[in-house]
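HUMAN: Please help interpret these tokens:
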Amino acid sequence: MTQDERGAPPFPTPDTLNAPPSWRCIDFVSDLHLHEGLPRTRDALARYLAATPADAVLILGDLFEAWVGDDMRSEPFEAGCVEILRACGEQRHLGIMVGNRDFLLGDTMLQACCAHRLSDPTVLEAFGQRHLLIHGDSLCLADTAYLRFRAQVRQPEWQRAFLAAPLEARLAQARRMREASQAHQQQQGPAEWADVDETAAETWLQAAAAHTLIHGHTHRPTSMPFGGHQGSTHRRRHVLSDWDLDHGHPRAEVLRLTSAGFSRHPVDA
């Protein structure tokens, strides 16, 4: 399969998540980037998950800053995260999509958290509507260097070779990769960071027969009308907030869907 004439990447066959009639409230979060340097963010996640009225919590990628294999779950900080997530998964539907930082999160970790895997993309059918859920990195088409890296590390051969290394070696490599990414970002202003390509996203929405796109990755939370290149002006895009309650400008937010529509809810430190 090749790209279409407008440059949109081919639309992968999505999984479909059908919300049962018993679901009255669905929460979406992403980009928590959890690591041991964010203890207040992790604690805020624990309080939110314990108190949310949601019947389902769907995490759309980058739950962790780096995930180098499911043997990480026994590390002290990550073990605490497992307990938090398992408590949620035992009470409600917990869905986890991998992102560009935690794409190696596997079935062993999901089982430990009583969580369900969300494919990227997933079509959510809820309250009579179809919603396209993605992490967002695959449609940041202007970031060509990252997309080349993504294609490499998503190969099963690369992942097998990486996971065969000792945990400490994998953690060290992840630190080097994160430092290189941070150095690259510091050379740019936030306005220069790649965004989801609108034409490609419209093509995917049309293929999914959906009118709402929900994603993270870009750290530019907003809800806005979207597209119109194909004659449709009633599509909307909901970009999820990243979380950081440990540093200068605290931010954390949940996107909530009920039969009344979407709403945004801040999470307190």
